[in-house]
Amino acid sequence: MLYGAIAASLPDVDFIVSFWLRPADNLLAHRGFTHSFLFGILAVLALAFILRKRHFADKVPVKIWLAFMGTEIFVHLFLDALNAYGVGWFEPFNHYRVSFNVIFVADPFFSFWPGVAVIFLLILKHNVRKRKRWAVFGLVVSFLYLIYCLSNKISIENAARIELARQGINYNRHFTTPTPFNNWLWFIVAETDSGFQIGYRSVFDKYSHIEFRYYPRNAKLLNPFYSQADLQKLIRFSQGYFTADSSSNGIEFNDLRFGQIMGWQNSEAPFVFHFYLQQPAANLMVVQRGRFANWNGATIRAFLRRIRGN
To answer: Is residue 125 a part of any domain in this protein?
Structure first.
């Protein structure tokens, strides 16, 4: 279990370099090369060799170590691609970042069951048959929940396309992604020629109508910064889903993929990811900046009501 935990955590070793990188550089470094297929293959070979040598007397075939380490590392790479951040599977040969937007980065309904299984595996003695049952239980329930999430994704995608067409909204591309800690309320963004149409939909909504609000891209606000490396990296990181705003902190770059701060309650809510272009040092927590600002009992109840559907 210890070896598995180490292997499963190894791709996140990229957090170490964050201490020396500028915020914009760190955005691309995280889930970059250490989440690539190349890194995964090299790590599997290295770990299998080390463990085979360390446990040579146990006569465990090297193919077992390869399968064990490969499962741990490549499951990590696959799961990270299921949320909005993006994963550099093809680094360093191609900088395209993969993100399927199927599950929120921290979904307790997915993580709870393996957590319970781990507790029992730590408590039960190694020769107890129930250990295997608990391990299978944790994996199977999470896998079934993941299938359920994929079903919700397909349902929301279809509803969004139909409603965008019904409202006569011409768009170039779109994405849908879950809101925090659940897979029932979804955030929808459709890119138009000059900006974005943004709306929310719950899988429990009884009506087909989705209320979209238009957000202009405001690309002109970025003109003074196009020569700066930070802006070019932010545009690449956002995959083109960005707007610009002017505030008391100067010009802000918004990456729309991470949603709004309680946007389901306030259609004019600020975006979670807002990067201060004129204050680079103030962007250390940019990805989740203000994610839970002003959350309290009333807002949580409003959140739950919106999840239950209109």
So the answer is: no
Q: In what order do the strands lie in the sheet with 271-276?
A: 242-247, 250-260, 271-276
Nearest one of 101, 73, 18 to 286, comparing CA atoms: 18
CB contact at 8 A, 89 and 36: yes
- Same domain membership, residue 208 and residue 296: yes
Per DSSP, the residues of 51-90 read HHHHTGGGT--HHHHHHHHHHHHHHHHHHHTTSSS-B-TT
State which of 100, 121, 144 marks the end of a domain.
100
Regarding whether 205 and 82 lie in a shared domain, the answer is: no
Number of domains in the chain: 2
Pick the last residue of a domain from 100, 126, 145: 100
Q: Mean pLDDT of residues grouped by 10 in the chain (310 residues)?
A: 95 91 93 97 96 89 95 97 97 96 96 95 91 95 98 98 98 97 98 97 96 96 94 96 93 96 89 91 79 85 94
Contact 43, 51 (CB under 8 A): no
For residue 214, the SS3 value is strand
The answer to whether 256 touches 238, Cβ cutoff 8 Å, is: yes
Range of the domain at 74: 1-100
pLDDT of residue 57: 81
Q: What is the DSSP string of 256-270?
A: EEEEETTTTT-TTPP
The answer to whether residues 84 and 6 belong to one domain is: yes
Note whether 89 and 98 are within 8 A (CB): yes
* 67 in Cβ contact with 45 (< 8 Å): no
